[in-house]
């Protein structure tokens, strides 16, 4: 795996100018077409070199609160930067380059053990781990960080059912987590939470929180050289990294950029060698045909879902929910808008996620006639549909509006910012929201419970039976039992027409020729949104 | 005593200087303008729906966490109280600390202002440096081939949005020709050549539409002056050559209008830097402002908007002073 881991215009004629220029822009951009680039390296990994990675300013390229795991509030978007600085106790690796066989494996941790049916988790650290300031990364340091992580304001703090004083140190290399109930998903939730990133307590004390978040100290593959928040993070190789021979790169620079198009052009211009999280589908196709970039579309884990608020009209009436299921044809949307590149899911996990099933037994088929009949029975149906603004979500929302209107449903669409979206959920008056559900492991991150548990403010469902299924599935450590419980939960959601699932989308990563690394040029399922690129194993072929 | 007697007439001369009175008047007028801008910004920021604390903490934050952060940031106090506290500190030069990063805002503005200031200066230098000779040449022979060509170029430039132009520049000069970098900024302190090299495309992205606008404006005004003004006819009757009439008479008069347009343009230009800085990944004020808006960092947004207002007011003051330099009637206070 490792070597391959890879002013006004007076005339109509003048008004055509922008259109002509736009076409020219596209034509110029397409002009260098040359087909797909071979992602396979020409030989074994080579040490040395520098790499500049671009990330969208509105997501991964924004780290406005700094990189202290306990005070960073955008942790889910900054997994790359965090991995590069801290390394991580655990990491998600894929056994195969196509992203299959993915599992969470110990990294700075040497091993783990679920005890008492998942009520306790014992984590053993590797021997001789040291932070880049020379202090030991021992169990005390890990416990200190886990306690800080639990009190963090970040949405990336672990959602563990941790008992009071639930972190204990057994010996210098062993930490034990104590839960109030069995929690089998504890380890799988690690790489998406800030508990995974262990900061040097000594450096934190010496620098103070304000300075530490700018120049954090961890035991990861790279050391911070300079950090301009949400603009540029320059890292240099950590010579004391615990993995012999790693990291391959001497220098790694993260740069924030204003979107997919400028990033794509910067790669073509040779100003950067990688881009994380390409969302704009037409650019994806352009990048593939450019003949200059390696495009790695990650296996999707989180499908879109149309959440229906079953607590308020009109979706407290099952007929209205049934009408939405019958009026919705996500396959047509996937084919028509995205040329089928995003597979359609019938449940809360995409094809790249754990416990995924291609179909759910009894899932209501697309049936516009039935939708029209239900709408007529109800004497008409008017629906408010909202979503957060991004390219794919808005395209899908517009398509849904068209499909629903064809079934006689009147649809008003709304684009929200995060804060106004949250207000909608908190008001309880929202009707339907196009969101993503699930995660690589449905019990971790913004998992299935986030959208379907009665206690979640972002759920449109209040169903104790479903709660029980989801809680039990998160608790058990037995994969077969978890699969059975999630299958039941999928069927239960479908039978009650709680929320039709849609295409499962995952962003793509771009790299220039000669750059290789797991998660960048090979597939690793995204834990949350972007894939966790293993930066210590990323390398460049010498020119 | 003798010194006091000698100082008084000097002071009287200074205070009776029309130019200084003009500056004084303009500076005094700037105070209510800046106050108005700061009140308006604060008010608008408070009207935005949603909680800043919610935005900072993310979707999963509990109401208790949101309340605690609001208390910590002082967002639980009434808006007028918060405004007066901000204003009291701002007049002493303390613009507060970023709600998101905890960094002092004055320092943040200083770091980012250098990049945007240099970008704006280069954009103006290019646009004016190119527009004046092109407009003079076009006005020298109206409807001639050069005039028509300059009109075509100007209309094209004016018709294209900044961001399209910027992307086109990158495609041509960075991707295809590889002569300028597509992104990034090299500080002046690191390399003067590298600094200019890194700012050529962003400055062209900002400057080309300005060049087109200034060219059309100046060419139109020059042609009007040359064709309809008595002083031009008099100059020609005296036997002054056409180029001298154009440069020393018509252009001097037309410069007033150009100065006004340039002064008024600055505000629009600052808005355009927000987009240009994103495309070229420049760590300037535009980038800072956009990030602050995205994260609802009201303190930084407020400081940025007030700074933009100060720069715009200062630019207009400079334009007024240039009128005084160009027109002795203003300088000596005649009507």
Automatic annotation (TrEMBL), chain A:
Signal peptide range: 1-29
One Pfam family per UniProt: SBP_bac_5
Location of the Solute-binding protein family domain: 103-442
InterPro entries registered for this protein in UniProt: Peptide/Ni-bd, SBP_5, SBP_5_dom
Domain of life according to the entry: Bacteria
Keywords: Signal
Name under which the protein is recorded: ABC transporter substrate-binding protein
Source species of the chain: Saccharopolyspora mangrovi
UniProtKB/TrEMBL annotation, chain B:
Membrane topology: Multi-pass membrane protein
Recorded superkingdom: Bacteria
The keyword Cell membrane appears for this protein: yes
Pfam (any one): BPD_transp_1
Signal peptide: none
Localization, UniProt: Cell membrane
Coiled-coil residue windows: none
Alphabetical keyword list: Cell membrane, Membrane, Transmembrane, Transmembrane helix, Transport
Domain ABC transmembrane type-1: start-end pairs: 113-319
Annotated TM spans: 27-48, 119-140, 152-179, 199-217, 255-280, 300-326
PROSITE patterns: ABC_TM1
UniProt cross-references to InterPro entries, sorted A to Z: BPD_transp_1_N, MetI-like, MetI-like_sf
Keyword Transport included in the entry's annotation: yes
SUPFAM superfamilies membership: MetI-like
Gene3D superfamilies documented for this protein: MetI-like
Record-stated family: Belongs to the binding-protein-dependent transport system permease family.
PANTHER family assigned to the protein according to its UniProt record, in alphabetical order: DIPEPTIDE TRANSPORT SYSTEM PERMEASE PROTEIN DPPB-RELATED (PTHR43163:SF6)
Protein's name in the database: ABC transporter permease
Organism: Saccharopolyspora mangrovi
């Amino acid at each position: 795996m490792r070597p391959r881991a890879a002013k006004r215009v007076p005339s109509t004629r003048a008004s055509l100018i922008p259109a002509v220029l736009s076409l020219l822009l596209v034509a110029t951009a397409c002009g260098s077409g040359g087909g797909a680039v071979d992602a396979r390296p020409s030989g074994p990994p080579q040490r040395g070199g520098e790499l500049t990675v671009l990330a969208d300013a509105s997501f991964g390229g924004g780290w406005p609160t700094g990189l202290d795991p306990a005070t960073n509030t955008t942790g889910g978007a900054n997994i790359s930067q965090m991995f590069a600085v801290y390394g991580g106790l655990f990491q998600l690796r894929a056994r195969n380059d196509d992203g299959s066989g993915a599992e969470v494996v110990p990294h700075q941790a040497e091993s783990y053990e679920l005890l008492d049916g998942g009520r306790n988790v014992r984590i053993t650290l590797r021997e001789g781990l040291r932070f880049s300031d020379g202090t030991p990364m021992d169990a005390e340091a890990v416990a200190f960080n886990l306690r800080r992580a639990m009190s963090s304001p970040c949405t990336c703090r672990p959602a563990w059912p941790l008992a009071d004083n639930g972190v204990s140190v057994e010996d210098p290399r062993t930490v034990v987590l104590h839960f109030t109930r069995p929690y089998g998903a504890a380890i799988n939730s690690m790489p998406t939470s800030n508990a995974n990133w262990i900061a040097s307590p000594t450096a934190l004390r010496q620098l103070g929180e304000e300075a530490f978040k700018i120049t954090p100290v961890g035991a990861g593959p790279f050391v911070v050289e300079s950090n301009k928040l949400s603009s540029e993070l320059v890292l240099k190789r950590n010579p004391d990294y615990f993995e012999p021979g790693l990291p391959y790169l001497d220098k790694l620079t993260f740069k924030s950029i204003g979107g997919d198009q400028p990033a794509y052009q910067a790669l073509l211009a040779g100003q950067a060698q990688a881009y994380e999280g390409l969302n704009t589908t037409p650019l994806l196709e352009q990048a593939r045909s450019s003949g200059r970039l390696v495009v790695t579309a990650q296996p999707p884990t989180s499908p879109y879902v149309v959440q229906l608020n079953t607590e308020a009209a009109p979706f407290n009436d099952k007929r209205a929910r049934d009408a939405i299921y019958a009026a919705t044809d996500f396959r047509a949307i996937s084919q028509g808008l995205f040329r089928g590149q995003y597979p359609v899911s019938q449940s809360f996990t995409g094809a790249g996620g754990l416990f995924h099933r291609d179909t759910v037994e009894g899932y209501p088929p697309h049936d516009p006639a039935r939708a029209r009949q239900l709408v007529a029975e109800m004497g008409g149906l008017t629906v408010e549909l909202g979503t957060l603004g991004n390219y794919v979500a808005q395209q899908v929302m517009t398509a849904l509006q068209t499909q629903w209107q064809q079934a006689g449903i009147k649809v008003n669409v709304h684009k929200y910012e995060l804060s106004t979206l949250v207000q909608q959920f908190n008001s309880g008056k929202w009707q339907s929201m196009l969101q993503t559900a699930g995660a690589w492991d449905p019990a971790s991150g913004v998992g299935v419970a986030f959208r379907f548990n009665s206690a979640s403010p972002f759920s449109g469902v209040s169903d104790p039976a479903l709660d029980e299924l989801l809680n039990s599935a998160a608790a058990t450590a037995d994969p077969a039992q978890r699969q059975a419980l999630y299958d039941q939960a999928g069927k239960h959601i479908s039978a009650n027409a709680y929320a039709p699932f849609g295409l499962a989308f995952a962003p793509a990563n771009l790299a220039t020729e000669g750059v290789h690394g797991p998660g960048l040029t090979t597939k690793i399922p995204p834990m949350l949104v972007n894939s966790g690129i293993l930066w210590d194993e990323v390398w460049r072929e010498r020119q | 005593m003798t010194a006091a007697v000698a100082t008084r007439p000097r002071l009287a001369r200074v205070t009776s200087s029309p130019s200084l009175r003009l500056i004084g008047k303009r500076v005094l007028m700037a105070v209510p303008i800046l106050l108005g801008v700061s009140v308006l910004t604060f008010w608008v920021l408070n009207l935005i729906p949603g909680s800043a604390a919610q935005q900072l903490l993310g979707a999963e934050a509990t109401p208790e966490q949101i309340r605690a952060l609001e208390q910590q940031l002082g967002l639980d106090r009434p808006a007028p109280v918060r405004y007066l506290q901000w204003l009291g500190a701002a007049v002493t030069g303390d613009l507060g600390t970023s709600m998101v990063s905890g960094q002092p805002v004055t320092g943040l503005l200083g770091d980012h202002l250098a990049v945007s200031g240099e970008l704006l200066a280069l954009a103006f230098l290019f646009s004016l440096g190119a527009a004046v000779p092109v407009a003079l040449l076009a006005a020298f022979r109206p409807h001639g081939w050069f005039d028509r060509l300059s009109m075509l170029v100007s209309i094209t430039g004016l018709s294209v949005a900044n961001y399209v132009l910027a992307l086109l520049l990158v495609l041509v000069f960075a991707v295809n020709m590889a002569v300028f970098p597509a992104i990034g900024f090299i500080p002046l302190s690191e390399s003067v050549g590298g600094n200019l090299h890194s700012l050529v495309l962003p400055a062209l992205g900002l400057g080309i539409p300005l060049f087109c606008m200034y060219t059309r404006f100046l060419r139109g005004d020059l042609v009007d002056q040359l064709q309809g003004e008595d002083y031009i006819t008099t100059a020609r009757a005296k036997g002054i050559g056409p180029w001298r009439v154009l440069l020393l008479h018509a252009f001097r008069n037309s410069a007033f209008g150009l100065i006004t347009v340039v002064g008024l343009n600055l505000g629009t230009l600052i808005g355009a830097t927000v987009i240009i800085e994103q495309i070229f990944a420049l760590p300037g004020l535009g980038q800072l402002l956009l990030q602050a808006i995205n994260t609802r960092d009201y303190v930084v947004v407020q400081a940025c908007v007030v700074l933009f207002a100060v720069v715009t007011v200062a630019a207009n003051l400079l334009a007024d002073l240039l009128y005084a330099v160009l027109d002795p009637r203003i300088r000596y206070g005649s009507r």
